[in-house]
Here is the input.
Amino acid sequence: MSELVHTADDRGVTTVTLDSPGNRNALSGALVGALTAALTRCGKDDDVRAVLLTHTGNTFCAGADLRDPPHPDALVGLLRQIVELRKPVVARVRGHVRAGGLGLLGACDIAAASAEATFAFTEVRIGVAPAVISLPLLPRTDPRALARYYLTGERFDAAEAVRTGLLTAAGDDVDAVLAPVLDGLRRASPQGLAETKLLLTASVRETFDRDAAELTALSARLFSSPQAREGMTAFLERRDPAWVV
Here is the structure.
């Protein structure tokens, strides 16, 4: 397994840990590949009842790695894999989440965070749109809240993330929040979990089938645009892009 992702098994729950603190667990091509491989292994292992997706450092995921972004097809494939995995995937967040990292949360079946976690859809601030990550997010979250946070790039807290449906729960101790969840998953039958997840993800899977190709093309077009080049350059240079007034 790549050093960017670690796995550990405990009583039927496999913890998959994003471990790329140098870029705040940003979604590089390498990290997406390593996470995809880890989830594939979990899917094939009959001893894995559920997957717990977590992270090292103070950031769950900072979004796309602007120096080594994954191909949109690879990101779509990862999000679809989480949704279609016949085992529940639970996100455990103890830090910040930005842009593409919110797509990971949206794809997970259950997501919990500590109270100090913060969230933001920052795509508009670098000249692109949250295209691919909308596949799991639009069917599962409050559309009025998404309109505000998609369009402004504002930061919001864990309580607001729960209200909007991005998170299942939040609390001062995220492990205490998740303890009854993991206990429940360990008590559930593998067949029961798989079939129940199929029921719960029906609308999300329909969205992938209908919109994935269009949104992948949109993402590729936007990331290659002049405004995106200016936005990404400004971000890396830690300055405002030219359009800020």
About this structure: The first helix runs from residue 29 to 44. The two ends are 46 Å apart (CA to CA). Residues 1-171+190-245 form a domain with the 2-enoyl-CoA Hydratase; Chain A, domain 1 fold (CATH 3.90.226.10). The first strand starts at residue 5 and ends at 10.
